[in-house]
Design a protein that fits this description.
By secondary structure, the protein is of the alpha+beta class. The chain has one domain. Helix content is 30%, strand content 28%. Strands 1-4 form a two-stranded antiparallel sheet. A two-stranded antiparallel sheet has the order 2-3. A hairpin with a 2-residue loop joins β2 and β3. The longest helix is centred in the first third of the chain and has 16 residues. The mean pLDDT is 88.
Length: 104
Amino acid sequence: MHAKRSLPPEQSDQLATVLEAAGKHWLLNRSVQWGLAIREHSVLQNGYRQQKLVRKGFNIEFSTLDYQGVAEVVDPDRLNKALVTGVGHSKGFGCGLLLIKPMR
């Protein structure tokens, strides 16, 4: 959202590019904390959505992105923690789940 709000109105045609770069930056910068080394060129993003909920009388808005890519496990303990507890700030809304499968 910070990247979206920082974009000047006259550059609104570049919104998709800005959001893609910000999303990839977020993912790659945090992946080490999760015990992963993500292959940057393998990352695909889609499913950018703005979610709007009402909880306990308050309007809540947040954005979600779906990622897909190839990563190497560099710290199994950190990865296990990330798989169990989730990642990101919206875990309470079902976001921040990591789904993994081995490459064959």
